[in-house]
Design goal:
- The chain is α+β, with helices and mostly antiparallel strands.
- It has a single domain, classed as Alpha-Beta Plaits (2-Layer Sandwich).
- It has a 3-stranded antiparallel beta sheet, covered by helices on one side. A two-stranded antiparallel sheet has the order 3-4.
- Strand 3 and strand 4 form a beta hairpin.
- Helix 1 runs antiparallel to helix 2.
- The radius of gyration is 14 Å and the shape is globular.
Amino acid sequence: MVNATGNLTLNGIDDRELVKILEIKIAHEKTLNFSPQAMQPQVTPNKPPYYNNVQLHWTTEDGLTAVHKIVEFLLNKKAEAATQGQ
């Protein structure tokens, strides 16, 4: 049996992405840990605010599944933006 444990730190997360991360975290409440106190808000003139140091920790296979959903969402959003020329 595999013991899927790990952590992931995300940078450049905007408000909409953060909401999606929280939705997935709520759906996987006992298997995915999120540390909001570690987040570092970044404010740059003429750019929307974003967050660095968004930390996710998991200790089960279900937690890894949740992280997979988050990463898949972020990659799909990036691919959609690239196809729209943004």
